[in-house]
Structure of Glycoside hydrolase family 127 protein:
Amino acid sequence: MAGNDATRGMATRRGFLLASTALAFAGGAAVAAPLAVDPARVVARPVAARHVTLKPSIFAQAQAANRAYLVFLSPDRLLHNFHKGAGLPVKAPVYGGWEAQSIAGHTLGHWLTACALQVANTGDPELRERLAYTVAELARVQAAHGDGYVGGTTRWGQDDPVGGKQVFEELRRGDIRSSRFSLNDGWVPIYTWHKVHAGLLDAHELAATPGALDVAVGLAGYFAGVIDGLSDEQVQKILVTEHGGINEAYAQTYALTGDARWLKVARRLRHKAVLDPIAAERDELAGLHANTQIPKVIGLARLHEVAGDDPGEAAAARFFHRVVTRDHSYVIGGNSDREHFGKPGQIARHMAETTCEACNSYNMLKLTRHLWSWKPDGALFDYYERAQLNHIMAHQRPGDGRFVYFMPMAAGGRRSYSTYEDSFWCCVGSGMESHAKHADSIWWKGGDGALYLNLFIPSKLDLPDGDFAIDLDTEYPRRDQVRLTLVRAPAGEREIAVRLPAWCARPAILVNGKPAGRGGPDGYARLSRRWKAGDRIELSLPMTLRAEPTPDDPNLVAFVSGPLVLAADVGLADRPFEKAAPALVGDGPAAGLLRQVGKPPHTYAARTAQGESVVFSPFFNQYDNRTAVYAPVFTKARWAGEGQAFLAAERARIDTAARTVDTVYLGEQQPEVDHKVAAANGEIIQLNGRSGRKLNPGGGWLEATLARRAGPLVLQLVYWGADAAQSAKVLADGAPIGTFVTPTGKRDGFFAVDLPLPPGSAPARVRIEAEGKPVVIYELRVMAAATA
């Protein structure tokens, strides 16, 4: 990577005084008196990362690549909009990608947290200095505003951060114009506000950055002042727009200061339309933007921990985690298709290039940590391990530290990586955090003194005050042996609890060479004794192959070897995938269709129904391959009867992909941003497991910009078959191209109406105008016209 601008100076006393001045406008100075959380609610805590040192491994490699990216990024470029909006001289140009759009500033918050995590683990002096400098600059920004405000967002289509602050001031006056991803013409400004708030809290708590808590409290006071004069109904209207974990940030501010004001604000920021059904244990997630919801539930979990006066908060968090991991997740532990939840148990129908947004897994792992701390349960860390190894480790390419937004589950899918200076998607931000925290969940301590081993990551544990010091050595997950060597042991009898993964049928554990310990109902082997230096614990976790079918199609299966999801290598990522998905044929258990190739485990070969040889190996490190995670499996009889139809459907899929010029999924955040969608007299809807746009008669319209190319083209408008007798006028670049009309008879399923679209080298501005009744459209596609 290239170098970046040198960090300009250290934090100064003047900067901290400026922060204190800003607090005078924000409701008083921070009360640094953290709460003591009731041990009945939080019975175990992670060992602080400063007591854990990673040894060489895939995890250490990922953390090193991530650290290089954190150092590469220029604080002054991330601060550009903050300085500009406060009327201060800018010190460096703004970055590209999302940082050059209305959502500008969210990356700074993620970067603060990621740097704080790195400092908390290794004490990194360079990142510690950069944190101090950045927080001092934010204090200057806050002082210049004079009311606690610290933001860098803008309005749609504008580059002036002053407009971003005006959004909040309009809200204060009760002028609220909200949709799922737009608030008063700003792209999710409270989501971005949350990232900065959370980053400051983490800089204080994890890295002891001077002044960070003061700036955070000033920031908290500003937004609290915005909603103080609003009714609960008005606050709920604001919360319609994606707002990240703003309730969690206020709960954490309460935990760090003991000021009950922040607890009250956190409770006001409960989005009832989503969280009340979850609290009532109703799965109404279909069609909802997944990562909008997960942080809200994390907020409920944190409220349970810091307050504990509403048992429904804990119950809601548990229910949500259960249904998402059981009914909405793919084999790698990730969830969502095009960022949205589908119907419960429907995975097979959602095999696409746009599955498994990385932010979702990042947040689900955060939620898992909360639930486990309330009641240690090995099954929770079985899930954590599944998502960490197979999604998070696939999400960053360790050779260059770049990140992936979606993790494709479609056959032939490939990963699309961020750039260093022109992406800054949400998944880049959460990725910087994910790969700074590999040391933070290996070891945990129970309130009863028990020491828990949850993740098998090569590391050194060195607890203070004469407590345990342990070397953890392993090639896991490549091999199945884990060895613990006690370097130091405390006096008296102590318990070490070792997770025995549920996927392992015959785990074995030895203490000093002798069998010891069995798994209990909570998934742990509990070893109690008077330990001494030199004691050894050896864990053997034999890894066998198994097949995991999708819940809605038992003939569509993924293969898992030990903790690792396998995938078929179907070619290099830089080459097109123009053949059928690898189908397997045979009678008997699906796992028997693969044969192991060499040693160690995790590499298998099979011959497809098409007669080709294919190799299945761990999915996570196939960084530059096209892969197939799920394989259709046929018995010999089924293939004889259905094989030709399968191959014909695959040919049709390949043809459709080749003909597709552009697609916009309506009602979904990033596709609408990318295609400059605008609409009036309508709404975003979630029906039939998908998002879409409803246009009302009497002025309802929608516009989108779509790519096109030379040659005959059609515009496809996708609708739900039960929405009969719809009619809308369709124009391209201001000229009518036809009428969107759906049949009068109702039917189930999604269908498309084709209209001719004039070819051209420039994008087309398509406009749809509702006529006699409401019109609901889910998708727009530009396609090359089919040849005869």
Notes: The chain has four domains: 18-41+55-434, 443-474+481-540, 546-634, 661-784. Residues 18-41+55-434 form a domain with the Glycosyltransferase fold (CATH 1.50.10).
